[in-house]
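Q: What would this chain look like folded?
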Amino acid sequence: MHIITSFSPYFVGFVHSLLVSPTYIYVAVIALFFGLITKQFAGVIIIPVVATVVFLAVQAVSPVVLNHAALVFPAFDLALAKTAVASYIVFLVLDTVVFAIKKLVLKIID
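A: My prediction, written as structure tokens:
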């Protein structure tokens, strides 16, 4: 029960941490790309899973590329699970917004 009740403050902190400089660029590019490749509304549920996996991979690889640090894989624990769920929710919202704007623009063009 503690895991469920502690998720709300974690989610707020996670969203706040996404606004830090290169992370918001990663999130924007990933959300824009996966939002644009979504073809149907059913994809809005499935595509954020792939976007979450890509985001977690980028989070693991970016220190290697930017700071020449050693590659360290994240520990598979509760913190990674919370991060995955929180990023899925963020990408679900962002991909839905991008998908809706894309459909609206395509409807206006046609």
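The helical segments are 2-5, 7-18, 21-37, 43-67, 78-109.
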